[in-house]
Amino acid sequence: MAMVGRLAALGPVGPGARLGILGGGQLGRMTALAAARLGISCHIFTPEDNGPASQVCPMVTLAAYDDLDALSRFAASVDVITFEFENIPAASVAHLAALRPVRPGWKALETAQDRILEKRFFNDLGIATAPWAPVTDGPQSLAEAVAKIGCPAILKTTRLGYDGKGQVRLNAPGDSAAAWAALGNRPAVLEGLVPFVSEISVIIARAPDGATACFEPTLNHHREGILHTSSVPAPIRPQTAIAARAIAESAALALDLVGLLAVELFVLADGSLLVNEMAPRPHNSGHWTMDACHTDQFEQFVRAVCGLPLGDPSRFRAMRMTNLIGDEVHDWPLLMATPGARLHLYGKVESRRGRKMGHVNTPV
Ligand SMILES: Nc1ncnc2c1ncn2[C@@H]1O[C@H](COP(=O)(O)OP(=O)(O)O)[C@@H](O)[C@H]1O
Ligand SMILES: [Mg+2]
Question: A single Gene Ontology molecular function, please (predicted)?
């Protein structure tokens, strides 16, 4: 295995190889299933016992993300390493990178881990975001940020936010103290509320040789801060779609990314775009590709991180993906009986409120 690993650093990691994935959620599960179809087996590294990914993988390391000994053993057993979860500590990523190819690399992870670095990264590329100001020194810097950005605005923690968690809306400057306390006095960023007409996202794959393949932009609807549906084709102008792809392309290039990059965007009334955030991995808004594209996002992810030829990302049918959140998963008998609907469940036992339990792809 060590020999294979060494060769892997020099060339593609093909059928018979082993892909290491940090993170054990549904994105890891669907990546492992796609890898299996290509004859590539996965080794999951996760602190969660019997999570969605572990259930479909014979090789699992159950350990904390900062357990360097466990990370060393994990690295020794795989040919290439990737992530389905970007919030891995810097020291762990550096440790792994000394042992095996790590794709994407630290720059993409670091930038996606921190909303301030992320917004600066896009702005430095000349790509617009919502107006924003850092709030890193407590209530005083929040007051300065409110003076600069105005209200309404959204205060977001710089790190570890997802599904609308770690965010508070400020309707007036008087809401500042409560908002700051609600986020638990953590470093944050204040963003002006964007009057978007729609939200879209675009997912690009980039291979080690710099080749790219982009999925078409998706129209996204959120409910209570959580993605509810993603639909294609998105009702946007051709120029808007071209601009979205160009943003993803330049970000992937600037990050020297190998793998997938998902970029969430706000569409304004004039068709122009603002970047909201990015994720250097498969993304919930790309689940429609599983039943509508020649190569879906999970297979494309495996191909990219393994240095295999990228697949054809083009779409062969219109599709709507609907997330099954919490108790919505109990509709599975009905969904299973719906002609054309393709049900994907993540194997989570408990359907807690706000928890992503599965999704269904429905041709439209
Ligand atoms: N500046 C903003 N203006 C308007 N709506 C926003 C803004 N920021 C976030 N939202 C809304 O909240 C959702 C979740 O915010 P986002 O920053 O993407 O966080 P998360 O990491 O939870 O996905 C967005 O998809 C959008 O609907
Ligand atoms: Mg988001």
Answer: ATP binding
CA 164 / ligand 2 centre spacing (Å): 7
2 has a pLDDT exceeding 90 = no
What pTM does this model have?
0.95
| Pocket test residue of 149, 165, 276 for ligand 1, highest count of atoms within 8 A of CB | 276
For residue 96, the CA-to-ligand 1 centroid distance in Å is 32
Kindly indicate the confidence band of residue 161, based on its pLDDT and cuts at 50, 70 and 90: confident
* Mean of pLDDT values over 9-15: 65
Does the N-terminal peptide bond of residue 313 adopt cis geometry, omega within 30 degrees of 0?
no
* Span from the CA of 201 to the centroid of ligand 2 (angstroms): 10
At 55-98, the pLDDT tens digits run 999 999 999 999 999 999 999 999 999 999 999 999 999 999 99
Distance from the CA of 355 to the center of ligand 1, in angstroms? Answer: 18
Domain locations in the chain? Answer: 2-102, 131-192, 198-363
Q: State the Cα–Cα distance between residues 17 and 352, nearest whole angstrom.
A: 36
217, 218, 222, 225: CA torsion to nearest 10: -40
Give the CATH fold of the 2-102 domain.
Rossmann fold (3.40.50)
How high is the pLDDT of residue 10?
42
The percent of the chain in helix, strand and coil, each rounded to the nearest 5, is 35, 30, 40
Would you tell me which CATH number, out of the four given (3.30.470.20, 1.10.3720.10, 3.40.190.10, 3.40.50.1000), belongs to the domain 198-363? 3.30.470.20
Q: Is 225 in the pocket of ligand 1 (CB under 6 A)?
A: yes
CB contact set of 160 (below 8 Å; sequence gap of 6+): 87, 166
For the chain, first and last CA: distance in Å?
46
Q: Could you list the residues known to form a binding site for ATP, using ranges.
A: 115, 156, 161-167, 191-194, 199, 222, 276-277
Provide CATH code, domain 131-192. Answer: 3.30.1490.20
Q: Which ligand is nearest to the CA of 166?
A: 1
Which residue, 74, 82, 84, is CA-closest to 105? 82
For residue 312, what pLDDT band results from cuts at 50, 70 and 90? very high
